[in-house]
Design goal:
There is one protein chain. This protein is an all-alpha fold. Helix content is about 65%, strand content about 0%. The protein contains two helices and no strands. α1 packs parallel to α2. The longest helix has about 40 residues.
Amino acid sequence: MFPAAAALRLDEVRTALVEFAKHKNLLGLDVAQYNPDKDPDGSGAGRLVDLLVEALSARLEALTAPAADTAAGSAEVSSSETSA
C-alpha cells in the first residue's frame, strides 16, 4: 500500500494478491516500498506479514486442490466408460 489519493485499500490489495497467488504460473512476488522508519510500532509490518501469509496459504490450497479434482474427474470418466 502506498498512501495516495488513488491508492488501493488494504482489502483491495488482499483480494487481488490472493487471486494472483492462486495462479500456477506465478513464479515470484516482490514486496516493495516498505519503509520501517515510517512504521515505528511495526503495525504496518504485521499487516504485511498477515497479508503474505493469507496469499501464500491460498496459493498452497490452489496448488493442491486440482490434484484432488483431477482424480475425482478421472474416476467419473472411468465409471462412465465402464457403464457404457
